[in-house]
Specification:
Oligomer: heterodimer
Shape of chain A: flat
Order of helices and strands of chain A: HHHHH
Radius of gyration of chain A: 17 Å
Number of strands of chain A: 0
Number of domains of chain A: 1
CATH class of chain A: Mainly Alpha
Mean pLDDT of chain A: 80
Number of helices of chain B: 13
CATH superfamily of chain A: NADH-ubiquinone/plastoquinone oxidoreductase chain 6, subunit NuoJ
Largest sheet of chain A: none
Number of strands of chain B: 4
Helix content of chain A: over 70%
Chain lengths: 93, 418
């Protein structure tokens, strides 16, 4: 039985993508959420590569893996570390 | 009989050269397995099957790719990185009127090297960086108690792997490359743009005010300078009409004008792209965080910037890969604006159908790349550091309008056919 390797690659990539996008939402630490967002966007780019559209893949990496998470993390870095570690407690600054 | 243009040393390409090497190694293994099978008769059949499996096309191709990528990795890190680091440390020492590093092979503590007539600290200093690397390997890898451990250890991997990704698409000559991509220029820019995220995460996750400030400065600076860099590339594509690095170099391999017997090459730095060349060079210097744009790691105020909390080889990798990014940036400038590996060829005699390059393309390329590295080093040890608000002002208020002007000039030159 011949294995359709492109289908396998697509399933693996989409599995990572779905897991990554779920982790973006459920993760309580904002920088980790941004990291998973970057992973998700890179896997979407890899799926473009699977569809033989290299140009869209490279633009996806350049814009959505290079620029968008940087802007996001730049905003997150202005928040305090303490708030992220203990989201429930109202700690002192 | 001579060949027309310059010729690569690795012909026709790296993959074919490595295939010869792989087949030689596998042939040797085959001979050994044959001999072993002859000596131990019950093992003859399985060993013959093993050698047949090793010589199958799939395994040969796999091993060839492995060897080709290893060759490129060693070429980039072991040869180019060490040499450029050595050039920098030696050159800035000489600029400050001192000798600089002097550890060399004569400093090794055993006999054929360590001799009475040969002072141990009077070498050229090439092995100092190797000694520093060995020292960093022995050091403890400390994680700060309040750091975000997983992110803290993930970011050096992210920075190192995205930097090494550049060398997949970066050719060193028309034969010395891993992959010949249709959108090679875009791939290199995309790989370049991945590192800022790692820098930011490294600065944030160490949970230290110095790394946080360094990371924020790095993010602001890299965001500001990526835009003029990409706009300069857009201006260049008006002239090239292609994003293929090989195509861009081939277009520059012709004379622009003759000054008596000397031909001025048609490099893009000399045409309507001169403004784009200057903008791209300044933006690349800012992207690799060198003085005058090294405020993210200003060691007088921020200890070591966003790398403060890293220790051992993680620090070594982050520190050394700055030079690797410098080499990649210089190589990008050389390919895009300074004619790549094309150069004046004295003679390429063809012996028995095989062209023997006296000055191969790799030599021209390395000469240009190292010369640009020397220029960057010279600049960075001659000028003071620019303040962070001034850096952002230069980026957003000067370079972005000028790069838009470069796009306009590029488009206009294309319309009038310059």
């Amino acid at each position: 039985m011949a294995v359709d390797w492109e289908l396998v690659a697509f399933l693996v990539l989409s599995g990572i993508e779905v897991a990554g996008s779920v982790l973006v939402v459920v993760n309580k630490r904002l920088v980790r959420a941004a990291f998973w967002l970057a992973i998700t966007l890179v896997t979407i780019g890899a799926i473009y590569l699977l569809f033989r559209s290299e140009f869209v893949f490279l633009i996806q990496i350049l814009v959505y893996a290079g620029a968008v998470p940087v802007v996001l993390v730049f905003g997150i870095m202005l928040t305090r570390r303490k708030i992220m570690d203990e989201p429930a407690s109202e700690g002192t600054p | 009989m001579t060949h027309g243009g310059s010729h690569p040393l690795l012909a026709p390409n790296l993959f074919e050269v490595c295939k010869v090497l792989t087949l030689a190694i596998l042939g040797l293994v085959d001979v050994i397995l044959d001999g072993l099978g002859g000596a131990i008769p019950p093992l003859a059949d399985p060993l013959a099957g093993l050698s047949g499996f090793l010589l199958s096309p799939l395994i040969v191709a796999l091993l060839t790719w492995l060897i080709a990528m290893t060759v490129m990795l060693l070429w980039a890190t072991l040869f180019n990185l060490l040499t450029v680091m050595w050039i920098e440390r030696k050159l800035y020492s000489r600029l400050q009127d001192r000798y600089g590093i002097m550890i060399s092979i004569w400093s090794l503590p055993f006999w054929p090297f360590n001799r009475k007539d040969r002072p141990t600290h009077k070498g050229t200093g090439y092995l100092q960086n190797v000694a520093d690397g060995v020292k960093l390997l022995q050091k403890e890898n400390i994680t700060p108690a309040t750091a975000d451990g997983a992110m803290f250890h993930a970011s050096p991997v992210l920075i190192a792997s995205s930097t090494l990704m550049i060398f997949v698409a970066l050719p060193w000559s028309s034969g010395f490359y891993i992959a010949q991509l249709e959108f090679g220029l875009l791939f290199v820019l995309a790989a370049f743009s991945l590192a800022p995220f790692g820098i930011l995460v490294a600065g944030w996750s160490a949970n230290n005010k110095y790394t946080l400030v360094g990371g924020m400065r790095a993010a602001a600076q890299l965001m500001a300078y990526e835009i003029p860099m990409i706009l300069a590339v857009i201006a260049l594509t008006f002239s090239t009409g292609s994003l293929n690095l090989f195509e861009i170099v081939a277009q520059q391999d012709r004379p622009l004008a003759m000054l008596g017997p000397v031909a001025i090459p048609a490099w893009y730095a000399f045409g309507p792209q001169a403004l784009g060349f200057l903008i791209f060079t300044v933006a690349i210097v800012a992207e690799m965080e060198r003085i005058p744009f090294d405020i993210p790691e200003a060691e007088a105020e921020l200890v070591e910037g966003w790398t403060t909390e890293y220790s051992g080889m993680r620090f070594g990798i982050l520190f050394g890969f700055k030079w690797l990014r410098m080499i990649a940036g210089a190589a990008m400038i050389v390919i895009m604006y300074l004619g790549g590996w094309s150069g004046p060829v004295f003679a390429t005699p063809i012996v028995a159908g095989v062209p023997i390059p006296i000055v191969p393309e790799e030599a021209w390329f390395l000469l240009k790349v190292w010369f640009l590295c020397v220029v960057f080093i010279w600049i960075s040890w001659s000028v003071p550091r620019v303040r962070i608000d001034q850096i952002l002002q230069i980026g957003w208020k000067r370079l972005v309008p000028f790069s838009l002007l470069a796009v306009l000039i590029g488009a206009g030159a294309r319309v009038v056919g310059w």
